[in-house]
Amino acid sequence: MAADLSTIVKAYDVRGVVPDQWDEETSALLGAAFVRVTGADAIVVGHDMRPSSPGLSGAFARGAAALGADVTEIGLCSTDQLYYASGALGLPGAMFTASHNPAQYNGIKMCRAGAAPVGQDTGLADIRRLAEQWSESGAPEPAATPGTISRRDTLDGYAAHLRGLVDLSGIRPLKVVVDAGNGMGGHTVPTVLAGLPLDVVPMYFELDGTFPNHEANPLDPANLVDLQARVRAEGADLGLAFDGDADRCFVVDERGEPVSPSAVTALVAARELARNGGTGTIIHNLITSWSVPEVVREHGGTPVRTRVGHSFIKQEMATSGAIFGGEHSAHYYFKDFWNADTGMLAALHVLAALGGQTGPLSSLVASYDRYAGSGEINSTVADQAGRLAAIKDAYAGRDGVTLDELDGLTVSAADWWFNVRPSNTEPLLRLNAEARDTVTMEKIRDEALSLIRA
After folding, report:
1. Interior CA angle at 294 toward 288 and 299, to 5°?
2. What does residue 114 show for φ and ψ, rounded to 5 degrees?
3. CATH class of 154-370
4. How confident is the model at residue 426 (pLDDT cuts 50, 70, 90)?
5. 2: pLDDT confidence band, cut at 50, 70 and 90?
6. pLDDT above 80 (res 57)
7. What homologous superfamily is domain 14-153 in, according to CATH?
8. Which of 53, 86, 99, 291 is catalytic?
9. 169 classed as catalytic
10. Residues 118 and 124: beta-carbon distance below 8 Å
């Protein structure tokens, strides 16, 4: 029987429980399939701090080398460090991580040369099919000349590349608390921030894929509590929180209050537009705040609205030549970073903006955070399509209300909007609502939730 990889090969990556759903043997087949599908004669491979990561990434490398590809292993790295290596070396890459998932999970994020994403429609489905075939028929015929496996350290190059994209030379001294969540931020932050006028207070920098302190998912407010308390206790200027593979960064102001990723998107968009002569395209997904397109237009840019998901953002970045893109989930994409996402570069922009003026972060971001938002609210729903249809029926034909179905259902009026999207992997509907004031937002939020949960 061929292995069924449908449970672990997702829309954009591989992810599952080790060894229950996949193991090193599976990983070696995926490495061989990756080389066959991409046609690569050389690849780069990196991994996070999870206990299973070195073994899985090593097996993938051996599978790739058996088919003749030379493999450069960069060892411990963040996901955006792997993207840097793919871009700088001009090689397809594979990053072993399950991001913020619990310790028993692991996964692979794959890209073509220049950090171009590999998803279901861009090679991932073919990689799965080949790996399944080989699991039934036996390993593929090895190349006449196997590839080599070598090691390379890319951390210094990664840090230098990021530092070259943001002018931090004139910033004032800042005290910053950084919560790495025992993830890869503990590996990258010391090198990236070295030599800057920063008093860095480290939290949970010890690499530990069992996540002994809290889940490495700053999108969940519960995982920001320690950082918020430490920022207040230290009298720090700001706090930064990274997820497990350190490709996302969340920001906390001097009061310990979370800064909306939409506000960070707007702030970075304004800075990137200034770097590019006050012109350029900025991508934002459809559930970022109204503030984002407003700020983009005010600074001379052109906002482009997309579906949620990194594959859509990266595709639109490439198609439109956009200089920057941001999502509500704190993924930030840069043209100067091969259109890939890097929370670390967004963090450097925040540090540069804050350090370039005298006021506190809360005042700086106030002009980028103009509306009342609900945040994302998940509801377990048995019939996603039926609930979406009911919401559509409830609002269709209302005066001053427009509907669009770019991604789920977005309902908009002059003073408010909300979006309801089905999860691709769980029986959930996700609600995001925003209005010009809190009272209106709460009214619209509760009205939408009553329809979702009916």
Report:
1. 120
2. 75, 20
3. alpha beta
4. confident
5. low
6. yes
7. Alpha-D-Glucose-1,6-Bisphosphate, subunit A, domain 3 (3.40.120.10)
8. 99
9. no
10. yes
